[in-house]
Amino acid sequence: VRCGREKPTCQNCRSWKTACTYSERQKRDNEASRTAHRFEEVHDRLDRIETTMARLVAALESSNLASTPLPAFPTKTIISSTQSQCSPGTPQSPQSNNGCLLPATYKIPVRREVQYLGPSSLMTLSSEAGSLAEEQLRLSSPHPGSEASSGVQHQRGTSDSTRMSVDGSIGAAVEGMLSRPEQVETVGALRKLSSISTNVATWLPDYGHRELGVGAGGTGGANMGIPSRAVAEDLVAEYFRTVHIWFPLFWQARFEEDLNRFYEGDKKLTEDRAWLVCFNNVMLFGLYNMCTSRKDIDPSVGTGFFLNAWAAIDDLEVFMAPRLRNVQALTMGAVVAVEVSRPGLCWSLMSGAARLATAVGLHRRPPSPCPFSKAELEERKATFWNVYILDKCLSLTFGRSTCLPDFDCDTELPEGDGKAGYSPNFIALIKLAKIQSNIYMRLYSAAATRQKTAEKEKAISGLDLELRAWWTQSRAIFDTAGSPDAAVDEGGPTAPLAIFSKLELKFSYLCSLTLVHRMARPDMKIWAQSDKLCLESARDSIRIINEVVECNLDVANSGMIIWLFQYYPFTSFFILFSAVIRNPTAATSKTVDFQLMKSLVSYLSRMQGRSEGAAKLLQIASAFTHVAGTFLRNYGK
Q1: pLDDT tens column, 403-418
Q2: Which of 58, 221, 487, 586 could form a disulfide with 311 if both were Cys (CB 3.0 to 4.6 A apart)?
Q3: What residue numbers bound the domain in which 275 lies?
Q4: Which residues neighbour 333 within 8 Å (Cβ) at sequence distance 6 or greater?
Q5: Is 229 domain-assigned?
Q6: Boundaries of each Xylanolytic transcriptional activator regulatory domain copy (predicted)?
């Protein structure tokens, strides 16, 4: 009898016309023993479920692959392919009119709409990596009369005729292939990889408006939780003392004047949504730097600043009114959106900032005579170049065209107000952004897909020279990131930020170099050299991250490194995966590339509890690392 627990007699016992003893409180077992017993039961059930699922996967793979012709996977691999790309916006089909394969792009349904993510984006890279692993597994399977029986072909791409012959003959060997434990394990790993690659499409492009709006507590949230004047002044001073040097967005004197007016009750500033966005985000950045510098401060108050800023920015006036303060508000919002892992939101905010910047005229030199003071002009130039840097880098991250065309931008570089110079990183990143703009235009844009092989080869060589010249000029400000002599002062407030600024400079250079040489093709004269440079750049970009993680815990635990992985394309990791899959017998595949992948997974595991972005990247990285390890372990068996 299932007791309803009503007093004095439950309904179930009443119908049986008997005394109800179930409603009485029963003596309970010790809480610890009951919890331990529950865990044992759960683990036993999970073990049985995993065993059953493994058997089902093996049976389904054997049945489906043996009875269904295998699909022709795109041969465009992580680093490059033998075919040139066509228009990135067109749906995929086996071949286009001129005979070349269409590029592997990813279109993701979000709320019944589609988002375009081009060939340099994380979605396309993960899709290509999964296709490469599945194709190489098939090519390494034994089937009579096939060249693939000798092992993995050590090319980035495979010709159409070879692929068709492989697909046509593999069906007979599938059942025997899946009968071996190592092949079942590999196929199971690929199945998990496919699931991860599919799900990541719904994770990362999330716009995030509803989630953040609920957290901000409605439209009134912007006027809630304003700190005391003394606290606000300390946080603002911290921002201008440290963060402003490498992220100069405001004229300090004007901002501090507005701060005083705000606390004196100026109604105009109290109702200015853009000011509230900037004010709360400046305090958030100042607080963040204090936390990473081990200062005694409660980091939980940062949540209030973030939600206040979001509640204020959620206003059409901020997005539409052509005001400098609105551009600054949207720019700061975009930077924060990268940090909280909302790339779709980040792109929207950055695009809005770029459009307003052109509406205000920040992209052009001022008329003569100049209507602005020296300080006002420098503030306008610094704001524009911050938007420009974001625009060019996110263009590569998303595989989308930039919002600020270079042919229409002639603003001079910022010079500073004469009191405090800008960080060398800021000027260096502006120059790098111009090269990144060329990388997208000459290698990843729709126009680039129509280039002949010789033209693309020339573009790769030219961009490589531009990047190396930039690095030769900029490396003077890069002292080995994370080393004791570069830490400025391990206990000092600027140490983590100084190390991060140097790390960002080299990491951005290596990522850009990887994106350039990844587009080389086997029929180019520079193929062998580009192949080597691409892999070396990918390895170095992960190595320098590991060096900083090992040498400086403040930077490693701050989340700034996770910001780098979300801000720049995650290309290097997939390059390492590609190297392992294409060359499983190479000594470096197991001792270098796979170890670098594992070290990155280990770091993301440490950070997953502190960062939503780290948790999502961990699922991607761990899935690909698992496949790479399985492939290395079982290859040749």
Answers
A1: 999 999 999 998 865 5
A2: 221
A3: 222-413
A4: 277, 281, 309, 310, 313, 349
A5: yes
A6: 346-420
